[in-house]
Specification:
It is built from three helices and three strands; from the N terminus they run H-H-H-E-E-E. By secondary structure, the chain is of the alpha+beta class. Strands 1-2-3 form a three-stranded antiparallel beta sheet, with helices on one face.
Length: about 110
């Protein structure tokens, strides 16, 4: 180990402190970006692994609506998902059970 340190000090020049600080900031940003994407990929993998074939599952808006409805103790409701200016799906929530009706979405094939 001592030989490696001596070799590096004898054969390479020192990096100026400003240049080292600039590269430190760049590497921190790169590390943050890669870590954030890795966490997102892990989260996506867990969600994908828990989903069965043919299972629609809850969408985010449905899960939020269900949580809100249980908080205010409403038994029956209808959640309309809107994308742009057109209605995409209607979801009926009856006694905390979700039934999904697609309005403009393509029908699933068997």
């Amino acid at each position: 180990m001592f030989r490696l340190r001596r070799f590096i000090r004898n054969n390479f020049n020192r990096i100026p402190e400003t240049k080292a600080a600039k590269w430190d900031r760049r590497l921190k940003f790169l590390y943050f970006f890669l870590t954030w994407n890795a966490i997102g990929l892990c989260f996506y993998g867990v969600l994908k692994a828990n989903k069965k074939d043919g299972d629609v599952g809850y969408r985010i808006s449905e899960a939020l609506a269900l949580g809100w409805l249980t908080g205010v103790k409403v038994k029956n409701a209808e959640v309309i998902s809107i994308h742009g200016i057109s209605s995409v799906t209607k979801t009926k929530i009856v006694d905390s059970e979700v039934t999904l009706k697609g309005l403009n979405s393509p029908k699933p094939t068997d």
